[in-house]
């Protein structure tokens, strides 16, 4: 394995690049399976060596990326000297692209949406060869985020809501799914079914009294007599996560009651 030999005259952190409290996840052989393999989120991993000048130069940009994409994309780092086994391409699932130098950046993108069977945790692995600036990396990584948001039309909406799973619908004027909603769809995969409805679907918007865009609506499963709820909090991952978690919890209780009454 050939490593960067560039020297760096700046100040090196005594305890490594990414210290406790950093938004960058320190990845090891011990936590790799839990953090990356079994996750439905996109993970982007920097393979680095502490003595590498180019790696030191990348560090502040990597911190910016991790802070900007916090809760949306998992940004991690592997110290190739401390984690020699994990740094082996075959060990991290990418035998055709060995780590020939550092820093190397790889995307581990889930391809089966948390499906079942032997391919449940299958990843598409992409080597990032673009500009090593935060803005460029954020844009590239955001484009590769997995999404489990259904695009629903006026014609398909009636069929979409015929389900025993809690629902959430984003009424939007945009043609592309916001990164925040993509991440929410990953977080609630298999728990809450998410959809987008465009402004053109006027009859659906009228059904839910939608007058402002975007509006996120929590809808009960088919056959459950419960109120539709409208999200009115801050446009953050944590706020939407809490809103949908409460919706999911309430609907699970309602479904359980209905089952006991049958």
From TrEMBL:
Domain Thioredoxin: 1-146
PROSITE patterns xref list: THIOREDOXIN_1 (PS00194), THIOREDOXIN_2 (PS51352)
UniProt cross-references to SUPFAM superfamilies, sorted A to Z: Thioredoxin-like
GO biological process entries: response to endoplasmic reticulum stress
GO cellular component: endoplasmic reticulum lumen
Domain of life, source organism: Eukaryota
Gene Ontology MF terms in the entry: protein-disulfide reductase activity
InterPro entries: Thioredoxin-like_sf, Thioredoxin_CS, Thioredoxin_domain
Coiled coil residues, start to end: none
Name used for this protein in its record: Thioredoxin domain-containing protein
Source organism of the structure: Cymbomonas tetramitiformis
Lineage: Eukaryota, Viridiplantae, Chlorophyta, Pyramimonadophyceae, Pyramimonadales
